Amino acid sequence: MAREAVSRQKSPRRATATKPARGEKAKEALTISALERGLAVLEVFSGKGTTLGNQELARLTKLPKATISRITNTLTKAGFLINNERLNTYELGGAAMSLGFAALSRVDIGRLTRPLLEELAKVVNANVCLGMRDRDHMLNLETCQGPGLIALQLAPGSRVPLITTAMGRAYLAALTDDGIDKVLTELEIKPVEKKKIAGKINEAQAMISDVGFCLSIGEWHRDINAAGAPIILPDGRILALNIGGPSFLMPEEQMRKKHGPAVAKTAEQIARTLGGRV
Question: Which of 59, 93, 209, 242 is buried most, with the most CB atoms less than 10 Å from its CB?
Fold first, then answer.
């Protein structure tokens, strides 16, 4: 009976689940640590500059360079960072901007371009947007509305498709051939569609080279026409300027002869203001 009493006393201690609890805590701690490191990398951009390389990020965060490489790769795939392959640096991407326009606060694009966007909105009496790529969409950084009561309504932070819009096409047209191929590969475009889209981009490139803007006539929405123009910043980043509205107010002929040239002119002014080019 004494042995049985001892056995009954010891068995509860053997039945404790301390090891699984430790495992769960360790897993939770690892997940939190990974998230904290990723957020630390993003935080550096808001405090130190708009473009940073892995080596500088490692120095600023005091994290190993191999860890930084994994973090920047993950954040780039998620849209929080954009990789500038020419400079081998990173900048805040569209996903980060949509959370708080953190990147916009570092390069005051809104303050510098707002007067030009407002003037264009008055001239064309339509919605005017300045945006950047966010994966398979274009993110509207700044928008202005013309005085008309009937118009396309797009607010800052809204997105439009990359492939079918004038804004997206203007962005794509400013890329190199390798850059275009990389984007279409990232978007997992089927070969048949890829050839068709590449043809549209080539048309946009030719039109921009000739008149400074490209068009999307009823391609995003059947009743919406738009014109777009690219703006290439000094560090190689690409913005796109866009106007759009109902086709009955902005017919194709008017887009070609009046509104498109106004977009091209404003894009040139914005490029000069930001120290870039078209």
Answer: 242
Whose tokens are 């040139």? That residue is: 268
Q: How confident is the model at residue 2 (pLDDT cuts 50, 70, 90)?
A: very low
User: What pTM, to 2 d.p., does this model score?
Assistant: 0.66
Say how far apart CA 3 and CA 18 lie, in whole Å: 26
Task: Tell me, rounded to whole angstroms, the distance of Cα 217 from its chain centroid.
Answer: 24
Contact assessment for residue 252 and residue 215, using Cβ atoms and an 8 Å cutoff: yes
CA separation for the pair 268, 272 (Å, rounded) = 6
CA distance to 54, 59, 228, per residue, from 88 (Å)? 8, 16, 28
> pLDDT value at position 110?
78
Winning range, highest mean pLDDT, from 35-44, 95-104, 174-183:
174-183
Q: Hey, what domains does the chain have and what are their CATH numbers?
A: 18-99 (1.10.10.10), 108-273 (3.30.450.40)
> Mean pLDDT lowest for which of 37-41, 148-152, 261-265?
148-152
